[in-house]
Amino acid sequence: MKAKRIKPVITMLGVVIAAALLATIATRFLTFLAGLENVAADVRVAALQPAQAPSKDIVIATITEDTVSRFPYRSPVDREFLATLLLELEKKGARLIALDVLLDQATEPAKDDYLKKTLRAIKVPLLVSYSDTSSVVNADQLSYLNDFVPAKLRAAANLATDPFDGTVRWIYPGEDGPEKPKGFARKAADLLGLTTPAEQIEIAWKPQQDTQTPAFPMFPSHAVAALPDDWFAGKIVLVGAVLSITDRHRTPMASVYDDDRGRMAGVVVQAHSLAQFLEGRQPFKLSIQWALLTSLVLALCGLLIGLLKKGIVFNALSGMFLIAIFWLGGMVGFRYGLPMLPLVGPTLALALSLWMMDVLLGSAERQQRQFIQGAFSRYVSPIVVEQLVDNPESLSISGERRELTFIFTDIAGFTTLSEKLSAERLSEVLNAYLNGACSIILRHGGMIDKFIGDAIMSIFNAPLPQPDHVARAVRCALELDAYAEDFRIAQNKAGIPIGQTRLGIHSGPAVMGNFGSQSRMDFTALGDTVNTAARTEGVNKYFGTRLCCTDVVVAQCPEMRFRPIGDVVLKGKLTGVELFSPASDADTASGLFSRYVDVYALLKNSDASAPAAVRALHEDFPDDALTTFHFERVESGLNTHHVVMEDK
Prior knowledge:
Layout: H1 2-29, H2 31-47, E1 58-63, H3 65-68, H4 79-91, E2 96-100, H5 109-121, E3 126-130, H6 139-148, E4 154-156, E5 160-161, E6 168-171, H7 184-191, E7 201-202, E8 218-220, E9 236-241, E10 249-250, E11 263-264, H8 266-279, H9 288-307, H10 312-335, H11 344-360, H12 385-390, E12 400-411, H13 414-420, H14 423-443, E13 447-452, E14 455-460, H15 469-493, E15 501-516, E16 521-526, H16 528-538, H17 540-543, E17 547-550, H18 551-555, E18 562-569, E19 577-582, H19 585-589, H20 591-604, H21 610-620, H22 625-635, E20 642-644
Parallel strand pairs: 1-8, 1-9, 2-3, 2-9, 3-4, 15-17, 18-20
Antiparallel strand pairs: 5-6, 6-7, 10-11, 12-14, 12-15, 13-14, 15-16, 17-19, 18-19
Helix pairs in contact: 1-2, 1-9, 1-11, 4-5, 7-8, 9-10, 9-11, 10-11, 14-15, 20-21, 21-22
């Protein structure tokens, strides 16, 4: 009799332990579940950490686009500049200098020799990025690097990324032996007299004080000499590149922020790792023992719900309620000092416990629910296989500078739309839109470089030359505009409040090539032309237009018609660029086009009759965005075509 009473207890205890163990193991070793657990942790790290003041110990001397534009070549970074920068930091009293620049190839002999001697002569504790990874440096590069950087200065520059999503999550430890250097952050900590663990540990990311203040003070490296000495005196100074959106590494903050806060330059990642050692902060995630204990508690809750025998609806609602409370507590609690509880594993443990109890209690009458697993496809940049096979030289591992034309597209208000639609409906609408847009780009010979949410970046004159690439891009943009407007109108009639698609076109020199490692490559373009093209798309919002291009594009399309917008100084630029809006055949045939061009000429010359002409044009065409833009400026007293942008 006693055995009969003990057996159910042992069985139920077995259910709790089995559910907790299975859930813990699954979230450790099943890629999909591990990814979900990481996302839940990433959101807390990105959005729910209490704000902190910027670091008082670490500053970053950044190598920016403005920095490299001062040199005759972008890469490698000018060696004389680096040597002068190191000496200037030493002069200003830096406590330690960490140079996150890989010195793996020769440049100008005199400059190389100058930097090589500086590395050996400098008195301030110094470390320099190093890598012997075959996907980063070949045999010749490694030989050059070994000769250039003394062994005592070397620090492994590797970043430890999650194989599931490529997110940087851990501090790369490197090696403690004489042949292999320590990781970058560990080497710096070692020079500062700190003891660090030899195993790979998670990064405890330092939160920002606010959206405008970075976690670490950043100063452009080319301005260091002109900055006050006390900004660097006694500081740990990291020197590294923060060049463009493609020279970034995904971090947990990317779960919330799609900007520099989410995709960090490598030197910023190293700063977070070093700050963790300096401040003694521990990784956020709990150990596997605590994770198992949390899963045991949730599994016990599932068992108790099952023992009530209230039926499937009650069990489901009770389980969801407990899960919601648990997730809310785990999220909000982290904000107020609660440890980072695992969320997916315990949730799975509760679900497994409920399921096991259902089986044990003999609920045979319940309809079995089938979970349908759909096939998920990923949008990737189209690969023009035939062209690359015929012309393999068009792919250059080191990149090739050439003239390119870019189209950037973006749907206005897409973030708001995504909040209003279910995930399934949003996916249907976005897939339909992208399919149509991509077919147009491909038909005009463009290369789809990447998708960024609803935005598309496409490139013309790559991978193979297109003599008429600028005209191709303009014709493509006009067709895209017509397609996107038809799509928007149709969706709006169906109750989907999708916004207008804005397009920007710009042409100029950029570095085109295959960037990355042997295992993960990205055929893309880098350079200021890319940034300008992206901003050209963004300024449509300011003018109320849907299509915007630069004067560089107009100059190469003499057979096409364009409406001038203004002489615009883009945010972050010092000189103005004249912007235009490509005109369709219907636009050029309208009375508005010729009248607008005449009125704009008056504005350009600051003619005294311009205000009256603008008002008359606006009275006849009150719905025209560009006419309205100039009308509002004239009404505010601005009788000019010169526009200074305050926002990107």
